[in-house]
Design goal:
682 residues; 27 helices; 11 strands
């Protein structure tokens, strides 16, 4: 009954039958196909490439200024109200984050406001994403802060009191902060130049080397750095800021060493802010479908803590650190200090690539969700212009933020008009009411930063998922995280990229190989060791390896072939008159027998391997399944030719199936089908 049911199911399945001649590669090349002749010369190609026309000029302008593609047809009635509400909501979040992330960048808080205005305004014109919110970002700010502290440490600005030689030196914070601003601005200028050059040269593909596990492991490590860096502000203790290898260990040690000097008022205010922000985020997430706009927890914390600090004189009476002076208005443009160029060029490459990878990953995510496309190269140019132009107005490097992007998208943002409105909110504060936030406690900003790290800490959940799906990707995640935590973000990223590349080499050097068998009644071929239904053809071995063949793995490919397809592999015969015999048995062992005359005679010079096969008859053909093989180099081709000669010496034919024409320029295989081999030997 079961067989009849299976037969009925098979009969009900759609089937197809194709009859055609058996083609070989030589026949295809000589009679069936001929390459097109390319009559266009190099000079004509260059002329066509640089020829200018009105259509090409218009396309270039629209590509450079994507706002022109959607602004003329902007549906005011449908989109304007949503964009305005979204922009106001995002601006309210961007304001406290700008102040907070400036502390990570080791510059005065007002420069975070500048970095939340100019780049956001510029991205409206040059960006291709409709939903991401660019501006200050925790990881980027921390990387910039590390460079600023390295180039302008506190030790450089120690000042001894004029009339007190026995007193300890104090730090000239004004001069120190001014120097750190110069470092951050110059670094931003270089980041912008690199991103623009990469975009013009169409180097948007560089992010493919930053795989998702690598980026998530790296950002998780960065979140740990950020969290530890904010502990001193939460506790109100005075410690040195560290950078470089093991900086997170030194920072944590310094905080614990000075924990007895914790400012109780600072700690209480910070903990209240953390609890409140966490509850607000929980409510926003739990009731996001019912709330018209998310509750702006960050701005509430900023306003309340500022009011409490001003009303209770926390700075004077309780020694609570506050933001301090916030100048009103915008600074005039100024040129960066180009004398810092040699010391910052290496760091600028790292910051530029990390910033773009964050931007393009979020941009592609929301573009896929809302059904449009983004141009990676134009995103590079847009980010580069945002950083380069804004750096002349004293900003530090920016990228996009996941938390603000979620706010902008969830509150109904349709286009970058929302980003424009968010920048105007920041501009209003900078120009008119910036002085209001001078009593803002730094512990409140630390609370904002710490709570915003919750999303990154959730990436630890990747570990069990990757353990179940891919051990290699789990290794990339762990190496990226561990290296970035211990070595710092710059060296950690380099180690992670190198390790990810090594995993690619490892995968090609350790491919999975198998012998395939035919599933009766189908055109399917599967591993005979894994599936009971797969059966080998009599006298034919089909060898499959899921990797290309090149110098690094050609020997492994041949070794695996000889292990999987067990038969007489190689005979070292010194005399052509000697005969070679093959024995076949039901077991799977290799035996060595001297063959030179009658059985039993010994000959120390000549021997051969007599291999016992599983099949009842001798193997006469080996099929190499090259379906996964995308390329083969000259070393791989020589290895295949050599093993073919070795098998031919014992009467075994080696043929290749599914060979790509691109992978056979150095090796001309015969493309065959299994039925030909069966009919030929029959």
């Amino acid at each position: 009954m079961e067989q009849e049911a299976a037969r009925e199911d098979a009969d009900s399945q759609p089937t197809y039958r194709i009859e055609r001649p058996v083609y070989s590669e030589a026949l295809i090349r000589s009679k069936l196909l001929s390459r097109k002749e390319n009559s266009i010369t190099l000079r004509e190609r260059l002329a066509n490439h640089f020829r200018c026309s009105s259509a090409r000029a218009r396309a270039a302008v629209l590509s450079f200024l994507p706002i022109l593609t959607w602004l003329p047809s902007y549906p005011v009635r449908r989109f304007l109200f949503s964009d305005v509400v979204s922009g106001l909501s995002t601006g309210v979040v961007q304001l406290p984050q700008g102040l907070a992330y400036a502390m990570l960048a080791a510059v005065p808080p007002v420069y975070g406001l500048y970095s939340s205005f100019y780049p956001v305004l510029l991205y409206t014109f040059f960006g291709t994403s409709r939903h991401i919110s660019v501006g200050t970002f925790a990881v980027m700010s921390l990387m910039i802060g590390g460079v600023a502290v390295r180039e302008a440490p506190d030790d450089m600005f120690n000042v001894l009191p004029a009339n007190a030689s026995n007193m300890s030196a104090t730090v000239d914070t004004e001069a120190r902060d001014a120097r750190r601003v110069q470092v951050a601005v110059m670094l931003t200028t270089l980041v912008g130049i690199i991103q623009i050059l990469f975009g013009v040269l169409r180097f948007g593909f560089v992010t493919i080397y930053l795989t998702e596990p690598l980026v998530r492991g790296f950002t998780t490590a960065a979140s740990l750095h950020v969290f530890v860096s904010q502990l001193k502000y939460l506790l109100g203790v005075k410690t040195q800021r560290f950078c470089g290898v093991l900086s997170i260990v030194y920072s944590l040690k310094a905080v614990l060493w000075n924990i007895t000097s914790t400012n109780v008022a600072t700690l209480i205010l910070g903990l209240v802010g953390i609890v409140f922000l966490y509850l607000v985020k929980y409510v926003n997430e739990r009731f996001k479908k019912k709330l018209p706009v998310p509750i702006p927890g960050e701005i509430i914390v900023v306003m309340v803590s500022t009011g409490v600090s001003y009303g209770l004189s926390l700075s004077d009476d309780y020694m609570v650190d506050v933001v301090g002076k916030i100048p009103t208005g915008l600074l005039p443009p100024a040129a960066p200090d180009f004398s810092l160029f040699p010391r910052l060029i290496t760091d600028s490459f790292t910051v530029a690539i990390v910033g773009f990878s964050m931007d393009i990953s979020l941009a592609k995510t929301f573009a896929l969700k809302h059904g449009y496309s983004v141009d990676g190269n134009q995103e590079l140019i847009a980010l580069g212009l945002c950083n380069f132009i804004s750096s002349f107005f004293q900003t530090f490097a920016i990228s996009c933020s996941m938390s603000r992007t979620l706010v902008q998208e969830s509150t109904g943002g349709k286009t970058q008009i929302a980003g424009l409105m968010a920048s105007l909110v920041v501009l209003l504060v900078v120009v008119a009411i910036g002085f209001v936030f001078q009593p803002l406690p730094q512990t409140a900003l630390a609370a904002i930063i710490m709570v915003n790290l919750l999303g990154m800490f959730k990436q630890f959940r990747d570990i069990p998922n990757l353990w179940r799906t891919s051990k290699i990707e789990l290794a990339i995640w762990l190496v990226a995280c561990a290296a970035s935590v211990l070595l710092g973000l710059d060296y950690g990223l380099l180690v992670a990229v190198l390790f990810a590349m090594l995993t690619v080499i490892y995968r090609t050097q350790s491919p999975k190989s198998s012998v395939l068998g035919h599933v009766p009644g189908t055109g399917l071929y599967y591993d005979v060791d894994e599936y009971e239904e797969a059966a080998e053809y009599e006298g034919i071995k089909i060898f499959h390896s899921n990797s290309s063949i090149y110098f690094a793995n050609s020997d492994l490919y041949v070794t695996s072939l000889k292990e999987k397809v067990i038969l007489i592999l190689f005979l070292r015969l010194q005399y052509g008159k000697q005969e070679v015999t093959r024995e076949v048995s039901s077991d799977n062992h290799v035996a060595v027998q001297h063959i030179n005359g009658p059985v039993g005679d010994s000959c120390p010079d000549v021997d051969s391997e007599v291999v016992h096969l599983k099949t009842p008859n001798a193997v006469h053909s080996i099929v190499l399944d090259w379906t996964p093989v995308t390329f083969i180099d000259s070393v791989g081709a020589k290895a295949i030719k050599q093993v073919s000669k070795e098998y031919a010496a014992v009467g075994v034919r080696v043929v290749i199936a599914a060979c790509s024409s691109k992978s056979s320029h150095d090796f001309s295989p015969t493309v065959i089908i299994i039925s030909e081999l069966c009919s030929t030997r029959a």
